[in-house]
Amino acid sequence: MRTPRLILASSSRYRRALLDRLHLDYLAVSPDIDESRLPNEPPAEYVRRLAEEKARAVARHHQDALIIGSDQAAVLEDRVLGKPGTLERATEQLRQASGRRVEFLTGLSLYDAAADRALSAVVPFAVHFRELGDAEIKRYLEKEPALDAAGSFHSEGYGISLFRSLEGDDPTALVGLPLIKLCELLRQCGVALP
């Protein structure tokens, strides 16, 4: 089996923690790309494009590696919810999500720089929120601000208390790196797992 150098095109500690589960040696490199959504770009195309652009950006300096790119969008009624950045925006996002279904689309790309070949996918996962009152939202954000997370929560932490149910094939997609699909793509590129 092939053993190329593996790189995660991300500075996310959450994605690193997920990739660590696979017990692979890898390097994490932050990509430097514009993450703006194109006009009228459908959310699934947006996350797929960004995942591949992140991997290709890192490949410019690592031309012999397999590079993992990933990006995620939270979608509520065709609106993309970004990372809130402020408590006010986080509060508003959670109010909007209250009692509703929010779909998380995670774009994944495994770019083989040596072969100039990208394998890409979009993995969906949905969260059904409980009805949330302002006091619950405030208590949650005081304990776990989640200003760096699309949708304003961390499902791997206290954010799980906000949900009624989850819907999807791979819960790691909700955190931002769908490991089931990643394992499939790595095997296609000759990486032995487990």
Describe this structure in words.
The protein has 194 residues and is an alpha/beta fold. It is built from six helices and seven strands, in the order E-H-E-H-E-E-H-E-E-H-E-H-H. Strands 1, 2, 3, 4, 5, 6 and 7 form a seven-stranded mixed β-sheet that branches. Helix 1 links the parallel strand 1 and strand 2. Helix 3 crosses helix 4. The protein is elongated, with a radius of gyration of 17 Å.
Write the layout of secondary structure elements.
Elements: E1 6-8, H1 13-20, E2 27-28, H2 43-59, E3 66-76, E4 79-81, H3 87-97, E5 101-112, E6 117-129, H4 134-143, E7 163-167, H5 172-175, H6 179-188
Parallel strand pairs: 1-2, 1-3
Antiparallel strand pairs: 3-4, 3-5, 5-6, 6-7
Helix pairs in contact: 3-4
Record keyword descriptors for this entry.
Maf protein, 31% helix, alpha/beta, 194 residues
CATH class: Alpha Beta
Total domains: 1
Q: From the structure provided, what is the oligomeric state, counting identical versus distinct chains?
A: single chain
Strand content: 25-35%
Q: Major β-sheet, in short?
A: 7 strands, mixed
Principal-axis shape equals: elongated
The rounded distance between the terminal residues' Cα atoms is 12 Å
Contiguous uncertain segments of 5+ residues: none
